[in-house]
TrEMBL record:
Gene3D superfamilies: Vaccinia Virus protein VP39, Winged helix-like DNA-binding domain superfamily/Winged helix DNA-binding domain. This is S-adenosyl-L-methionine-dependent methyltransferase. Signal peptide: none annotated. InterPro entries: COMT-like, COMT_C, COMT_dimerisation, SAM-dependent_MTases_sf, WH-like_DNA-bd_sf, WH_DNA-bd_sf. One of its GO terms (biological process) is methylation. It comes from Tuber magnatum (white Piedmont truffle). Pfam families: Dimerisation, Methyltransf_2.
């Protein structure tokens, strides 16, 4: 295993074997050129990819040495500084999307910023293969830079480089004042301190800062296309659910998951429950052909669960990771009170590994910090999920775990005893 060795020769052998396995199990070799991301679904390719990334990172740690490793982390936020500047200057939108290069002077003129500033940003981004300098002073898109400019990914990047990047520096103060325990109050977060409000993130963006709310809704839509959030998993429990099942997507955003599920599962009826502003943006974008199968309902999940009775599957994707335990228990107990023995809760979230180290799911670690900064919340291990579910209502029973391939996302299927 790449994580166990410091031997460069052994690592190079692992890399060479993994490259062969990878290339023989993916439809096309990877490229830096702008191209739609190709999801890796083959089991051998998934394993080879994991081995490759871990082995390559180990080589970088060994050859780079401890100073470079630690300084890389301590100053890692300047990667975000560079992406933030690119986002604000709209550089990605001003570079030709067909992959042809643009001269620095033209890019600067189109973006309305001095060449000298763009050069500094490009120097930082091209280090990570985000944009490429094709000849001195000429820049073209790579796959990574293209993503920054595509509508929903732009919103997702904006969410991270704007409200999260602004909030993160406050996290130590929030924790220090509580002896470094995370407060169980979603209104006393690094986010609420940075934005000087006594509200949780959602209360702020859907009331006080609606443009930020609209951007967040679009950003969530982008997460269904991202490799680390394996939407495919949600279809599996739904496809094996009894006929006549209704999907209630609790906090289902603008309906992207419900729409995808309705398109995939014939005759499935879906109700997306949301805060008023989100429900109305969702209704505006609902495809005509799904209007008889997908509806939006305004509902505050802390206040109650209005839909009950037989055959209801309650889907909560990326909801409970947004809230400290007491708030999660409230949401779950309202649902438990509406359930009968034929209903299920599908908790669609990360299921963190107990062990740690260089082969850990990096996206899950970042998301755990995201939740800490914005919500005083967290990603959870299987044991933490079990404790939370039982703590919400003694009658709730974990019936099955559906795990995505190649990352730590999954679905916890919960019934009522
Ligand atoms: C992280 S997003 C997840 C959205 C969607 N489930 C997905 O997976 O993309 C959390 C969602 O919870 C919704 N939400 C937050 N507080 C809520 C509340 N009190 N009642 C209902 N929905 C709420 C937000 O509007 C947001 O759409």
């Amino acid at each position: 295993m790449a994580t166990k060795t410091e031997d460069l020769t052994e690592l190079s052998n692992i890399i060479s074997t993994s490259v062969k396995n990878y290339l023989s199990h993916v439809p096309t070799p990877p490229t830096l050129r702008p191209a739609p991301p190709v999801p890796v679904t083959d089991e051998v390719a998934i394993q080879a990819r994991k081995q490759l990334l871990v082995a390559c990172r180990r080589v970088v740690s060994l050859v780079g040495g401890p100073m470079e490793t630690v300084m890389g982390m301590a100053m890692g936020f300047h990667d975000t500084t560079a992406v933030r500047l690119a986002y604000d200057m709209k550089i990605a939108q001003n570079v030709p999307l067909d992959g042809s290069p643009i001269a620095l002077a033209e890019l600067a003129a189109k973006s309305g910023v001095p060449e000298e500033t763009i050069v500094r940003v490009m120097r930082a981004l091209t280090l990570n293969d985000v944009f490429v300098e094709t000849a001195p002073g000429y820049f073209a898109h790579t796959g990574g830079s293209t993503l920054i400019g595509t509508p929903q990914m732009e919103a997702l990047v904006g969410h991270y480089v704007d409200e999260t990047f602004t909030s993160a520096p406050h996290v130590s103060d929030v924790l220090r004042e509580n002896n470094f325990a995370v407060p169980e109050d979603g209104r006393k977060t690094a986010f609420s301190r940075a934005f000087n409000v006594n509200k949780n993130f959602f209360e702020y963006i859907f009331v006080d800062n609606k443009p930020m709310g609209t951007r967040f809704n679009q950003a969530m839509k982008a997460t269904i296309a991202r490799g680390s959030f394996n939407l495919v998993a949600v279809y599996e429990p739904l496809l094996s659910a009894p006929k006549g099942t209704t999907l209630v997507d609790v906090g289902g955003g603008i309906g992207h998951v419900a729409i995808a599920a309705a398109q995939k599962v014939p005759k499935l009826k879906c109700v997306v429950q949301e805060i008023g502003m989100v429900a109305s943006e969702g209704l505006d974008g609902l495809p005509q052909e799904l209007k008889d199968r997908v509806e939006f309902q305004e509902n505050d999940f802390f206040e109650g669960q209005p839909i009950g009775g037989p055959g209801v599957y309650y889907h909560l994707r990326h909801i409970l990771h947004d809230h400290p335990d007491p708030a999660c228990k409230k949401i779950l107990s309202h649902i438990a009170n509406a359930m009968d023995s034929s209903s299920r809760i599908l908790i669609d979230e990360c299921i963190l590994d107990k062990s740690m180290g260089p082969d850990y799911d990096r996206a899950a670690v970042k998301m755990d910090f995201q939740m800490l900064v914005m919500c005083n919340a967290k990603e959870r291990t299987e044991a933490q999920w079990a404790e939370l579910i039982k703590g919400a209502d003694e009658r709730l029973v974990v019936e099955r775990l559906w795990r995505a391939k190649g990352n730590s996302t999954g679905i916890i299927e919960v019934g009522l005893a």
